[in-house]
Amino acid sequence: MDFKPIILITAPSGAGKTSITKYLLEAFPNLSFSISATTRQPRGSEQHGVDYYFLSAHDFQEKIAENAFLEWEMVYEGKYYGTLLSELDRMWNKGLVPLLDIDVKGAIHVQQKFPASTLSFFIEAPSLEALESRLRGRGTDSEENIQTRLNKAQYEMSFKQHFNHIIINDNLEEACKKTASLIDAFINKKLRK
Ligand code: 5GP
């Protein structure tokens, strides 16, 4: 496709981004989740090539040297995450629209590179307390991990104005519908089932 659209979803972790992403992928058949590469360990039932491409630090560094990434960040201490250009090309070549679920810094970089073809959303939890209880409810993170994520969340909130739309996730269904209608308008109603 000539027009190479990118939908960006970013949020402090625990803000409900994953639920919104799932809803969008079901609502728009031509929207396709961009599988990132990461050096962190798989959690729970996560699978290589489905949730992430789980790479060793060595392999990740090699890909950086090959300029294989659209963007990459050390999202957490010593843990790298990045969007592979090959992943985006694979989707554009099939007429699919990539949906990127990436951290705030990475999202700002992508938006600066492709301002006209990117639609970006910052998903905000109603409060830091709500964020904390969601992180604990998830039951997959250690106490130390939760504190790291909360500190990072506070910092990331200060960048929310950089994005096209801020979605406050106090009601998941409404947040999903609002995001979907904005995507619908952006991609000219071509992708809705
Ligand atoms: P988690 O470890 O919880 O799966 O993800 C941690 C953070 O890394 C999330 O905010 C997620 O959006 C972000 N992330 C996932 N993939 C990428 C990526 O390719 N690039 C960047 N910059 N961040 C990513």
Q: What do you see in this structure?
A:
The protein has 193 residues and is α/β, with parallel strands linked by helices. It has one domain: Rossmann fold (3-Layer(aba) Sandwich), CATH 3.40.50. The protein is 41% helix and 23% strand. The protein contains seven helices and nine strands, in the order E-H-E-E-E-H-E-E-H-E-H-E-H-H-E-H. It has helices at residues 17-27, 57-65, 85-93, 104-113, 128-138, 143-157, 172-186; strands spanning 6-10, 31-33, 36-38, 52-54, 69-76, 79-84, 97-101, 118-124, 165-168. A five-stranded parallel beta sheet has the order 2-7-1-8-9, with helices on both faces. Helix 5 (128-138) packs antiparallel against helix 6 (143-157). The two termini are 19 Å apart. The mean pLDDT is 91. Guanosine-5'-monophosphate (5GP) binds at residues 13, 36, 40, 71, 73, 75, 81-83, 101-103, 106.
Which compounds are bound in this model?
guanosine-5'-monophosphate
* Helix content class: 40-55%
pLDDT under 50 segments (min length 5)?
none
- Provide the number of structural domains: 1
Beta-strand segment tally: 9
CATH homology group:
P-loop containing nucleotide triphosphate hydrolases
CATH class: Alpha Beta
- SSE pattern: EHEEEHEEHEHEHHEH
Strands in their spatial order, largest beta sheet: 2-7-1-8-9
Backbone CA Rg: 16 Å
* Major pleated sheet: 5 strands, parallel
Approximate shape = globular
Which helices and strands appear, and what pairs or packs with what?
Layout: E1 6-10, H1 17-27, E2 31-33, E3 36-38, E4 52-54, H2 57-65, E5 69-76, E6 79-84, H3 85-93, E7 97-101, H4 104-113, E8 118-124, H5 128-138, H6 143-157, E9 165-168, H7 172-186
Parallel strand pairs: 1-7, 1-8, 2-7, 3-4, 8-9
Antiparallel strand pairs: 3-6, 5-6
Helix pairs in contact: 1-7, 5-6
Bound molecules: guanosine-5'-monophosphate (5GP).
